Every structure is written in structure tokens, then in C-alpha cells.
What we know:
The protein is α+β, with helices and mostly antiparallel strands.
Amino acid sequence: MPVGKNAAEQYDSSEIRVLEGLEPVRLRPGMYIGSTGYDGLHHLIKEIADNSIDEAIAGFANKITITILNDGGVRVDDNGRGIPVDKHPKTGLSTLETVLTVLHAGGKFGDGGYKVSSGLHGVGSSVVNALSTRMIAEVYRDGKTHRVEFEVGKTTKPFTVTAGSPRPSGTSITFYPDPAIFKETTTFDYDWVSNYARHQAYLTKGILIEVNDERTGAKESFYFEGGIRSYVKRLNNGKEVMSDDIFYVEKKVADSEIEIALQYNDTFAEIMKPFANNVLTPDGGMHVVGFRTGLNRTINDYARKNGLLKEKEDNLTGDDIKEGLTAVILVKLPDPQFEGQTKNKLGNPEVRGYVDKVMTEYFGYYLEENPQIAKKIVQKAALAARARKAARAARDNVIRKGAFDGLNLPSKLADCSSRNRDECELFIVEGNSAAGSAKEGRNPKIQAVLPLRGKVLNTERARLDKMLANAELVSLIKGLGVGIGEQFDINGLRYDKIVFMTDADVDGLHIATLLMTFFFRYMPQVIEEGHVYLAKPPLFGLIKGTGNARKIDYLYDEAALEAKLTEKIEEKKANGAKIDEGQERFKQAGYTAQQRFKGLGEMDAKQLWETTMDPENRVLVQVHIEDAEKADAVFAKLMGDQVDLRKNFIQAGAAKVDLDDLDF
């Protein structure tokens, strides 16, 4: 680029591009929907359906239907008032067209629209229109159907009005995502839609939300008269609750509405679901601060007043009180101040005082009226306080503070030489035999190996103090470098990939599940940021040749083995070879031997490297938390104390297993 006078002369109005209409959305879609992958695609449904939810929150709709269409589109219907259709004074278009083609046009601005809205930025419908190859909008008002069609955000079939409508009032929006924008996929996931609908039904009590999938015929309906009380009940499903009674309060404070439901269970984890105007705020915010302040003060005041805490005892901390707590907080306010486009945190300072006031007053009444439940809550928190102090003493002894410098790593860890975390990998290996092969076969520059002896502690049933008395878990914590509990810091993680490498049998899967439980309960951020993997060692080896000419084809399951053998046999037949059908299948396919790997320990260092550790050949399965609530329920069921739940789960699953497919 030239500099000086010539450069200045070339810089004129022709260099300035003015983006018109919805052009900015197509140019930078990630700014509006977060991404153009799976999440962004499904965010389109949310943007349209949230408008229908707003009608329900305002009291004008009680039924919403989301339909995944056979032809790749999605239709969202509601029985609300219907988007206004009269001519808009500023655009000269119908209000319907204005809402769908102009950014920041909608009922979420000013005083004449929604008092409470789940959409903050007011860009939803028009953004979906811009990112769709086609959109069809129909509004039912006054016994007429008002219709308009668009392509890539531009009107193609003008606004029309016809007599008659399928229902007295409402809106129907159909859209087809543009594959030029969503290059990864344009196929909608029914489970995502179902989960979204279920959550919205919990948060808007008395609304019926139906989900239909024309591709498969799947249908579900969600209706929860109990609202967030029903939500808490579902979150505690599979856990031993302190009482069947669920604390619930719904109060209006100033211009906001506060709704809270909570219940304690016998686990050591907290489940907190905070929402503002039906938007999940996973990073919390002022409503959560107010809730915790009110909860902690109320429990400590009750404990002091009723002699459940001795005079010289310290107050119970927030960490003590939240153990076993399941809570849903829903605040509705006219002007929510979310932090960032992703709306992860609520910033309105006044909400803190509103929620604190409601919790202090009404949870205080609840404790006074339910002394037996109150006593159990205080006793559980007091036990957690003792465990916390014991854990802190243990942690101070076993966890090195600050960045790892290699001086205090566990002795059995065979560390890698690189200090560049982005290339480092930790293999957590079952058994000394497999660990020996892994240490010998690895790339020592970037691959570390930590052997496990036997099965680690089930952390679903253990507090932190007991966990820190377990030598295997202590070695793992020290090796990872992130600390634990209140000292946890993801920035200390020493490895980009943490790989569970266990045998492909029942015991190996059990060990992997125990490790998964530990990470999910105590280090979920490590999973959320994509650092946890499962190694997939082969089950079979097809051997051809001997000595230096020996070659092995590795297969990972029965289906892959059969497919490989069939392919080779058919190939030989096509080339005119005669097949002896009496021979074993592997010999018919031209192999000299077939090997079945019962465990990692059966592989030598070279085989383990080739099949399970070599980045060029290995198969790794990355662990994701797609549905934290479902994952929580599964861990509670499989790893918790409720034997009957686990037994029923196994019996139900056993009916689906073909015994011919199992190896004994």
C-alpha cells in the first residue's frame, strides 16, 4: 500500500462501502447468531420461537407448535395476537414486512410493545430472514390471512390478504436456512428442538408447546402447570430429596417479577438454573448474587436463632449451603441488561436487591413453618463445613500452588518434555502392563502417561475431603495442574488433550465412567473446553505375512471386522479366485491369522503406538456436554446411591441387547 500524498489522494468516497438492509447480516452472520455451524443453525429456531414465547409471557398466547418439515424447513405457529399488518408510518410497508426486513424493528422497543421480552436486541426475525433461502410469513387477524414471502431477506411475493384463516388469531413463520451460509449442516436436530421446547414450557407455566418432526413422525407435547416447580422436580429426578415439598415463591417487586423454586437433595453438587426473561444466564449475574445473599443470610440467621450453630462456630459459607441445592431462578424485567450478544450474564443492579428481599422474607417464612426441613438443611450445611475444612487441610498438603514447574509432579507420571500446552497430551492408562507399553511406545516430547491402579474412587458418592485421601485421584489432580475446589484454575492445565485409555471391556468402561464422573462433578470446565477424550483401541487384528513383511489391519468392532472380511472375499471372487467356504473367514479373505485383543496389556509398545497413540492413525472420541441436565441425571442414576434406579436402567437396557453380539 503506498504511503504519503498519493495514498491520501486515492482514499475517497469510493473506498467506503455502505451496507444496506440486511447485507450486514449475511456478511457477518456470526455477529448475530454466534456461529454458522450447528449452534447457529438451531439459533434460528430460537429467534423465531422466542417471539411466540414473548406473546405467551405477555398473556396473549397459550399454544406454540414447532414443526421440522420434510423439505428441510421449520415452521413455528402460535395462537397469539398476530404480528401487526397495518402500514408502518416510517417504512411505508406493512408492519409485518417491516419486522421481517428491517434490523431493530419490533415490539421490544419503546412502551407500546412487550413489557417483558426474551429477545434483547430486536433483530431476530429479520436476521433469520436474511440467512434463509426462503421465508413465508402468515398472520391471522380479523378472520383474514395476511401473507408475504421472501428470498434471502427480500420480498418476492408481495403482501396479500385473503378471506378466512385457520384460527382466530396468530402467526406462522416458515423458513429454510441458506446452505451458502450454513456450510456445515442445514439439517435440524429433533433433540435440540425438543429440549428447547421443554425448557420454555417449564419457564412459562400454562403454555402448551408441541414439537413435530415430519421426517420421522416423532411428536411431543410439553405442558407444566407447576412451571419451575416442575423443573426442579425433574432436575432432582433420581436423587434422594430432603423433602418432597419444594419451596416456591412468585412475587412482583417494582416493575419486575421474581419467581424462585428450590429443593435440597442428598448429593454434594449444586444445580443452579438462572433465567432472565426466559433466557438462560449460565454465568449468573445480579439475580444469582441476590439469591445467594438472601439464601445464606436466611439460613445462618435461622441456625443462630434456633441454636443449630454454636456461639463460637463460624457462619456457614455459601459453599457449605449450596451443597445438594437444586434451584431455578426466573426474573422478568422490562429492560434486561445482558452482558454481550450471547446474554450469558445479567447486569441489572436493582435485580440483586429485588431477589435478596424476596428470598430473605419468604424463604425465612418457609424455614419457620417447616422446622424439620430447616434442621436438615442446616445439618447438611454444617457437615459440608466440616468436610470443607478437612479438604482444605488435605489440599494444602497435596496440591502445589501456582504454576507447575515439574518439581512436585506425581512420581508415577511419565511426563512429556514439551512445555507448550497446545501440543501436550496426557494418557490416563489402566494397569501397569499397558502403561509400560504406552511409556515405551509414546512420543516423549508431547505425550505423558499416568498409570492407574485399579478402579478410582466413585466421586458421585464422595465429598472433596474423602476424594483427596485417594492416592490415584491426588496423582491425577497434581498431574493436571488445575487444582481442585475453590483453587481450581483452568489456566493451569498442562495438557491440551486428556485421553482415557482403558480396555474395551466392561471393567475398562467402568473405569472410564468413574473418571468421567470425576471430571463432570469437579472439573466440568475441562470437558466444556474440549480437553477430554476417550481412546478407542482396536478389538481385532487381521494379520498377513510374516517377519518384516508382516502387515496388520486393525478393526475396532465386530461390524468393521465383518465388513473388511466381506470386502476382501468379494474382491478375490471378482479376480477369479476360488473360495473354500469351509475355511475360517479370515483365511477366505487372504489373511494368515486373526487376533482378538482382550486388553491394552496384550499389545506391545509398537502396536499400542500404531493403533491408539499415533496421531496419524488413532481414533479418539472427544467428550462433549451437549445436555448438562441429562448428563447430571445419568450420572446420578448410574453412579449414585439409588440401587433400584440403576437396576431398572440395566434391566430396561438389557432388553435391547442382542446376546449374539456380546463376547464372553
